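Entries read chain and fold; for instance:
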Amino acid sequence: MQKISHIDPLGKMRQLTSNFGIYQHGYLEKPTPAFGYALDDQARALIVANEFGDNRLERIYLNFIQEAIKRKDPYHYFYDEGEKVVPDRKIKCSDDALGMIVWAILKTKNESDIQFVFDRIKEWEYPRAIAYAILGLLEGEEQEIEGFLINKLVSLFREEGEWKWFDNYLTYGNALLPWALWKRSVVRNDKNSMKVAEITTKFLIDNCQDQGVPMPIGCKGWYKKGGIKAKYDQQPVDAAYMICCLEQAYLATNNEYYRNQANSWWRWFWGNNTRGVSLIDQNGGCYDAITDKSDKVNFNQGAESNISFPMAYLAAKRLGLTT
């Protein structure tokens, strides 16, 4: 495995970042500004920059978010226009992205007016949006809304034969859901959250592998209950969230099994995958996917992948897996 000490985990994020924010897309060593910026990328990037202590990057991402939420009904995608960034007014901000904003602002303890999100948060139905908000709320004193969201997320869980999940699909970022529940169990000593987290983590591990090798659900078809599991394309965000989930599982249980699983998923980035290929190039950039094509990887290197990799790195480092 390539030595992590030889690369800068934040190097690609810096390369993708302008004075306004982190560009949504890039190809090999160059960003592609024509695609503009996505608000959810700024939120996750803010968390990573904060954890690395990079004040310059943190300030850029925070400024972008604060400008976006001033209108209280933000748009999701933004583009450069001269010396400013303007929204694409056709695309409203999703609940997932609003959940990420809550997570980022509360995690980094930055002052921002996000009350407009809390005014609508009880109406949310999408489990990922709920989980993002829970991760943020767990950073402070317990509030009534946190318990409401936890109860809503747990209420979505179903055990139907071999299918033990929150809905009828495994799609992207699946491990986010048990991750939020594991962290709730760690921070609030919530045994019910821990029980659901344990069952759903096992379900994910069992279903996201191929002969013992980590295999995130492929985005070309996903996996519907009773259907065929898509093997490709496998995306870095899924591996990163799994590592973060397993870190919290280890903290909650002190069970070495979870740390070993986290190590296996960390090595997914470096070749412990169904194509035996490294997702990380010599400069620390992360490719966007493992594919079934002859090149084996998607040579795009966008924001999501290159925020996910340092996020995974931080969790792996805390677990002592990066040496």
